[in-house]
């Protein structure tokens, strides 16, 4: 999920554990969440599939806003599959619910695994914070609505793993996130 800049430790971990990874899930189309993908794919030949929400395809095709921060823009082949809200994915015996949570980007998603009460949130919500909404395609009102309607309705004990910073929980953010008080 979201292979950022330095893919080497991820590839090394996968190889050491003897795992076979065929698919990368992307929480959104910003370059800092997929810049390590070419390196990861070159080290893991079985890694063939990239999944992204359909509403972020335009952002993906434009280089994921990399031009704002970097001198080079990474252009990659099209994702293999475009995700939709409430789609169900499977990882072994685990069900992964795709929750479309626009705001940070039009196609931001959260990957929620009910069996382990864990949600991978990308840049939607952080420990006592929320994702940026000053980038092209972002929308603060949508971001707050996504959090209130899709995250704060998950069980309170759900662990929230964001793209940056420490993990938190639904209960912690409902109670203490300053953007909602």
UniProtKB/TrEMBL annotation:
Enzyme class (EC, first level): hydrolase
Location of the Metallo-beta-lactamase domain: 8-164
Pfam families: Lactamase_B
Listed InterPro entries: MBL_Glyoxalase_II (IPR051453), Metallo-B-lactamas (IPR001279), RibonucZ/Hydroxyglut_hydro (IPR036866)
SMART domains given in the database record: Lactamase_B
Keywords recorded for this protein, A-Z: Hydrolase, Metal-binding, Zinc
EC number(s) stated in the UniProt entry for this protein: 3.1.2.6
Required cofactor names: Zn(2+)
GO molecular function (one): hydroxyacylglutathione hydrolase activity
PANTHER family (alphabetical): HYDROXYACYLGLUTATHIONE HYDROLASE GLOC
Protein name per UniProt: Hydroxyacylglutathione hydrolase GloC
Organism whose genome encodes this protein: bioreactor metagenome
Gene from which the chain derives: gloC_36
């Amino acid at each position: 999920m979201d292979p950022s800049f330095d893919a080497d430790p991820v590839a090394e971990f996968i190889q050491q554990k003897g795992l076979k990874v065929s698919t990368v899930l992307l929480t959104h189309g910003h370059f800092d969440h997929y810049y390590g993908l070419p390196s990861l794919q070159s080290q893991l030949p079985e890694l063939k599939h990239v999944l992204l929400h359909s509403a972020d395809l335009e952002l993906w095709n434009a280089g994921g806003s990399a031009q704002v921060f970097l001198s080079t823009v990474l252009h990659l082949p099209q994702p293999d599959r475009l995700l939709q809200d409430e789609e169900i994915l499977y990882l072994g015996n685990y069900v992964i619910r795709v929750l479309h949570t626009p705001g940070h980007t039009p196609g931001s998603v959260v990957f929620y695994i009910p069996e382990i009460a864990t949600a991978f949130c990308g840049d939607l919500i952080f420990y006592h914070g929320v994702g940026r909404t000053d980038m092209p395609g972002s929308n603060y009102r949508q971001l707050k609505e996504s959090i209130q309607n899709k995250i704060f309705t998950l069980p309170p004990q759900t662990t929230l793993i964001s793209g940056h910073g420490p993990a938190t929980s639904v209960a912690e953010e409902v109670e203490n996130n300053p953007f909602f008080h």
